[in-house]
Design a protein that fits this description.
Radius of gyration: 20 Å
Largest sheet: none
Order of helices and strands: HH
Helix content: over 70%
Strand content: under 5%
Number of domains: 1
Distance between the termini: 10 Å
Shape: elongated
Oligomer: single chain
């Protein structure tokens, strides 16, 4: 296995991380922006107001995106294991 193959595996791993974490992070970002806008418009500056909606939205996003996330991680694992088998068999 050469340096290019290791870099390629690392690049693919980072891409899988972005694909799996991205939807959850975007859901948290969007609800955070909505709550911040609501707080700015109503001058309610309660610090704990942001936590409960964020937690609820993030849990819902995890439930919705979990099949996609599992598919991506399993597919990456299969490709990685296939590369390990090919490396072990001398191919």
């Amino acid at each position: 296995m050469n340096e290019a193959a290791v870099i390629e595996i690392g690049r693919e791993a980072l891409w899988v991380i972005l694909l799996t974490a991205g939807p959850i992070m975007m859901a948290g970002l969007m609800i955070g922006l909505i709550i911040a806008l609501f707080q700015a418009l109503t001058t309610i500056q309660e610090m704990t107001l942001t936590f409960v909606p964020k937690i609820i939205v993030i849990f819902i996003a995890i439930i919705v995106f979990l099949p996609f996330m599992m598919t991506e991680v399993v597919e990456f694992s299969r490709v990685l294991f296939d590369r390990m088998i090919a490396l072990g068999s001398g191919g």
